[in-house]
């Protein structure tokens, strides 16, 4: 069986995202439960529910939550403090 270079490259490039290892949150960062508590505290009574909370490989927690008046809020949180990061 003969594999052509273009086909080999396509197979290799196609598997690259599967083989990539995501960088974990920093060891000295807050626990996920502490991040959730920080969101609940900062949003206060306006928080209806947290819709999504995930670690971003760029080095921050990304949270999306809905307020009691229906607004969708998206914030990037510092993993060590839980504070909202400045928007760029």
From TrEMBL:
Note whether Signal occurs among the keywords.
yes
Which residues does UniProt assign to the signal peptide?
1-22
Please, which domain of life does this record's source organism belong to?
Answer: Bacteria
- Its recorded name reads PepSY domain-containing protein
Which keywords has UniProt assigned to this entry?
Signal
Q: InterPro entries recorded for this chain?
A: PepSY (IPR025711)
Q: Which residues form the PepSY domain?
A: 7-84
């Amino acid at each position: 069986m003969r594999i052509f270079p273009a086909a080999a490259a396509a197979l290799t490039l196609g598997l690259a995202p599967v083989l990539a290892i995501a960088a974990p949150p920093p060891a000295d960062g807050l626990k996920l439960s502490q991040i959730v508590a920080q969101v609940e505290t900062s949003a206060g009574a306006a928080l209806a529910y947290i819709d999504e909370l995930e670690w971003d490989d760029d080095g921050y927690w990304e949270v999306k939550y809905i307020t009691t008046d229906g607004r969708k809020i998206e914030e990037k949180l510092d993993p060590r403090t839980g504070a909202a990061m400045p928007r760029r």
